[in-house]
Design brief:
By secondary structure, this protein is α/β, with parallel strands linked by helices. 53% of the residues lie in helices and 16% in strands. It has two domains: 150 residues, Response regulator (Rossmann fold, 3-Layer(aba) Sandwich), CATH 3.40.50; 144 residues, Heat Shock Protein 90 (2-Layer Sandwich), CATH 3.30.565. About 8% of the residues have low confidence.
């Protein structure tokens, strides 16, 4: 390898694996052939990576326990614990589950490559290979991994900012009502029964609002946890619920609560979907609640279902204010749209909850602007 080429590779790697600090990226090379392992390490070290080595999967796990690498380059066939076994062990742990993993192998069979990819490998390089191909693969995987981390961090920062803006108001408003009215009850003598009922109703209303906020936040956290567990997702997808029954219950409850039962029109075809009943109920509640909240009393809200091609479609259509394309793309927790022009209660968790539930069950959330109003559609897999 020429001096100019090595210099170019070092410069490219420095740009690729710099994450805002001067810390070098650490790479673990795992191969039972000492000569091959040393050659790979030399190539990567010449590109300014910090490299450690292991002769098999067991040795690699011991090293990873004390020092987690930023990327692993690993042979497939090794004694004691091969590359597939090592990758399986790493994917079991939250700490090591997202380490970029590149397989090196002399095999060219598609079945071997397919098995590695199914286990979660990020790339596959067949021996013999050029040094530049290895360096390029490492740089690409480190770049991609950093981009994912940056994206997650950006979402966390946005969530933190949104929570800072929304939650203090959402907690303080009902708490102020509860404290204020309860103080009146405590300090005022001789209240009439009408006054007591009036104060009690406001305390109950504020407490209900606070209770819903806490329940939504707990559910949001629960859904985040479930989305991170493939085993939990698999278990949830074995559940089923009757669409007609759940929708009927939600329509009855919200119609009474909002005093708009006459405004809700239905066109329901019953069917069963692969969704937990409580999750389906929450989806229906959030979508219908939004439709009733953002449309005027006396205007119609149409709730309909359709079954076909192994899917069940739930649609809610209203004549209220719609959403822009940018707003639809920005759906997330604690995000409220046009709050400065349209005063509203709630932390903006509704559609974020719906979207996360859809992600768990292979569902699809679609929001289409109509003229006027908005049509929200949920597409879930049909249960057998």
């Amino acid at each position: 390898m020429g001096a100019d080429k090595r210099r170019d590779q070092r410069e490219a790697a420095a740009r690729a694996h710099t994450d805002g600090s001067s810390q070098m990226k650490r790479i673990l090379v795992v191969d039972d052939e000492e000569g091959m392992r040393s050659s790979i390490a030399q190539v990567l070290q010449s590109t300014d990576y910090e490299v450690s080595q292991a002769g098999n999967g067991i040795e690699a796990l011991e090293r990873i326990t004390s020092d987690t690498p930023d990327l692993i380059v690993c042979d497939v066939h090794m004694p004691k614990l091969d590359g597939f076994g090592l990758l399986k062990e790493l994917r079991k742990s939250e700490r090591t589950s997202d380490i970029p993993f590149i397989f090196l192998t002399g095999q060219t069979e598609r079945s071997s490559q397919r098995e590695g990819m199914q286990l979660g490998a990020d790339d596959y390089i067949t021996k013999p290979f050029e040094a530049k191909d290895l360096v390029t693969a490492v740089e690409l995987r480190l770049n991609k991994h950093q981009m994912v981390r940056d994206k997650i961090q950006k979402r966390l920062d946005e969530l933190r900012r949104s929570m800072t803006l929304a939650l203090p108001h959402e907690f303080r408003t009902p708490l102020t009502g509860i404290l204020g009215f309860s103080e009146i009850l405590q300090q005022t003598q001789g209240l009439s029964s009408e006054e007591t009922v009036y104060i009690g109703s406001h305390i109950h209303k504020s407490a209900t609002r606070l209770h819903k906020l806490v329940e939504r936040m707990l559910l949001f956290t629960e859904l985040e946890t479930e989305l991170a567990s493939p085993e939990r997702i698999k278990a949830l997808r074995s559940s089923s619920a009757a669409v007609g029954v759940i929708l009927g219950q939600v329509i009855e409850s919200l119609g009474f609560e909002t005093q708009r039962k006459e405004d809700v029109q239905t066109s329901l075809v019953d069917g069963r979907v692969r969704v937990l009943e409580s999750h389906l109920s929450k989806v229906a509640e959030e979508i219908l609640s939004n439709a009733l909240k953002f449309s005027k009393k006396g205007t119609k809200v149409l709730v309909s279902t359709a079954v076909g091609s192994g899917r069940v479609i739930i649609s809610v259509e209203d004549q209220g204010r719609g959403m822009s394309e940018e707003q639809i793309k920005s759906i997330g927790a604690f995000v409220q749209f046009d709050r400065n022009r349209n005063e509203q209660q709630g932390p903006g968790l509704g559609l974020a909850l719906v979207k996360k539930i859809c992600d768990i069950y292979d569902g699809v959330l679609t929001i289409d602007n109509s003229e006027p109003g908005v049509k929200t559609t949920i597409n879930f897999p049909e249960a057998d």
